Amino acid sequence: MEGAARRPAPAARLMGVTFVGVRHHSPACARLVRETIRRLRPAYVLVEGPADFGDRIGELLLGHEPPVAVFSYYRDAERVHASWSPFCAYSPEWVALNEGRAAGAELRFIDLPAWHPAFAGRSNRYADAERRYAEVTARLCREFAVDNTDILWDHLFEIDAEGAGERLDAYFGLLRGEAEAGEDDTARESYMAEWVRAAEADAGGRPVVVVTGGFHKPALEALAASGGAAWPRVPEPPGDATGGSFLVPYSFRRLDAFTGYQSGMPSPEYYQRLWEDGPDAAAGALVETVVARLRKLGQVVSTADLIAARTLTGGLTRLRGHAAPARTDLLDGLVSALVNDDLDQRLPWTSRGALAPGAHPAVAEMVDALSGDRTGRLHPGTPAPPLVGHATAELTRLGLDRDGPVALKLTTPRGLERSRALHRLRVLRIPLADRESGPATGADPVLEERWTVDASDRDGRRHAALIEAGAYGPTLADAAAAVLDERMNAAGTDMERLAAVLFDAALCGCADQSGRIAESISAGIAGTSDIAALGAALGSVLGLWRHDRVLGTAGSPLFGTVIEECADRILWLAEGVRGGPAPADLRRLGALAAVRDALLHASGTLRLDRDAALGVARRVAAGSGAPPDLRGAAFGLARALGDASDPARAVRGAAGPATFGDWLAGLFALARQEVLDPGAAVLGVLDELVVGLSEDDFLVALPALRQAFEFFPPRERATIAQGLLDRRDLRGSARALLRAPDAPLLTAEALALDARVDRALAAAGLTADPETRPTTQSIEGAS
Fold it and tell me: What does the alpha-carbon distance between residue 677 and residue 695 come to, in Å, rounded to a whole number?
């Protein structure tokens, strides 16, 4: 490969040190590592991995069933970071550790810890940050006429292992020679070089094998050739930080590039079989797997189709110059033989990244088959964080360790305790139970929950999730509170998200356990200008503060502070809203209604100034700059707080066709009782105003009027209908009056169509004699 000579050259060769550059999760690289260690039988095997896990490498060698991963976590006042270092059976790092132990070598992880700032942007240690060398790999793809680096890699290394070591050296030298290493790479490589020098000095002339990502190899060869030979110190996190590492089961789904994994090796089941049996056997077995999956889905796949798939795969293999079928030879052969439809999108293996929505079902099955569903299992003696034991004991104590439906009465101590345990697991994203019903908001009076528990954990996902959740605390309550703190910080000033976190905190029984929750809520309230979101939060929290003795939030000081701050902020923002005629904003009206409820039900206990709120309501209602729905809501709020203004007069003042319905929507959202109160005379004024509208004005006002009257429940609408009948001295059923023979909007559209026809006839000089043409009034009278 041209350009390979540009890689950094070492100042002097390290005696006895062999550097093996690898691509993470590559069977070809794993074979090279295995062969090198077996041939050299080194004194030390140094592996790119977290140095702070170095004294626990023995845990990795207990006899797990891969894939597994080292899960590392870090938390301080400023940063939360989680990282995984995954290993499957064909990961070069995994093979290096196992072969090194078999050869009697000392094993060392030599990279910086996962918490180090060099990994701040990575959730996966073995992600191949390929943007650094995208230009050179793109050129190689063009030269070899392949679609992407995965196909290029298979073409160069996986199928033909003969001479792979030399080709890998040339490939990685070319990548490093034409790519810029960042500060993070430089820091990591300098640290790893210290380990290499120390091991070489301590080996006493025996070989040392160094296994790292191929991108780092040329730099390490140069850096390790000079400098001191003392063992480096393992960095420790700052004193105010907490962190640690544990082994977790992993899965092929999480390893697969088609599900978004950053390492870049897709189709792990294919590479597992390639590692175990070679390319020919892998291709043959996976053809049968794909066919079996498609048949299970009801797709007809004949023996002739199977023969065709194998024949086409073989033909593509020979055409592309491969000694044995590559992954894309197999996939392209399957598509050609089994998919007869036109495909709406590119085949997923011709590009990189997650499988796009809408992929052909057969293609999706092929991707799934080559991905596989293997899940790793840890040796029973593997250390685990305290949360695992605590959660297991809690589930047993509370009787939640058995499959089946669970009904919980929140009014009983045991029911509430079981509910909180399940909600803590939910907040921690521990798969155990699905909640089917229960309180959905703070204002929801539901006192029973129903869950469905699946306690089997057949795929080990719950055990892995519990280990990862152990980063947050030793008990379910502590861990859930820490997760809620994290969600609070991430929500910023988004009040809807903050309110959701606060409600979850109430369900988990830890709403008042964290001062950070109160601080985050206060900051969010002060920083948001979203009246609707503030209103949603206020309504939920007010319900919890007023009624929820079951969840333990009734009278909560934290919730009381949220109510005070939300109400003040909503009123302050509402007075600044400006705008002309516009459809009623129902969520903004809900916010004013929440303020009304807070003032009516909590002002005697909390610091809520009714007089100040009344002043804001009067100013907004009397002003001309606010939207009509907000002016109507402000008038309703003032009435609810005791203002004696004449509602009938206010209704007359808002009676423009373009704004009437929206103003009424605001009024009815806050004070719909005004319409039902005979003494207020509002119903008569409304009747008079609506009847007095021309047909055109009525059609303009109708949609907003319908929306406004939606604030009345059916019983109250029947009361209004009865009032209209009484005003006309008519007898009949008020409920029947509400059941129009046709949809009201359909009737309105028909009237509008009549009007357009009349105008067209008039323009054409075909208008009927006004004395003989039926009028709307005469039609109404006839009906």
Answer: 29
| 448-453 and 404-409 strand pairing | antiparallel
First to last CA, the chain: 92
Distance CA 729, CA 747 (A): 26
Query: 18 by DSSP, 3-state: which?
Result: strand
Dihedral of CA 523/527/531/536: which sign? negative
Tokens of 649: 């007069």
H or E stretch including 84?
Answer: strand 80-87
In 3D space, the residue among 639, 550, 559 whose CA is nearest the CA of residue 602 turns out to be 559
Give the contacts of 77 (CB within 8 A, at least 6 positions apart). Answer: 240
Look at the block and give the residue holding tokens 């002002």. Answer: 603
Q: Tell me what percent of the chain is helix, strand and coil, each rounded to the nearest 5.
A: 55, 10, 35
Measured CA distances, 656 to 588, 701, 708 (Å): 22, 9, 15
> What distance in Å separates the CA atoms of residue 268 and residue 671, rounded to the nearest whole number?
63
- Asked if 17 and 196 count as a contact pair (C-beta separation under 8 A), the reply is yes
> Which residue matches tokens 């319409």?
675
Q: Is 234 exposed, middle or buried (0-12, 13-18, 19+ CB in 10 A)?
A: middle
* Distance in angstroms (rounded) separating the CA atoms of residues 756 and 458: 68
List CB contacts of 330: < 8 A, sequence separation 6 or more: 270, 283, 286, 287, 313, 370
Cα dihedral sign, 625-628-630-632 = positive
The beta strand positions in 448-496, using DSSP E, are 448-453
- pTM (predicted TM-score): 0.73
The string of pLDDT tens digits covering residues 91-110 is 999 999 999 999 999 999 99
Tell me which of 43-57, 401-415, 446-460 is least confident: 446-460
Residue 173 in contact with residue 6, Cβ under 8 Å? yes
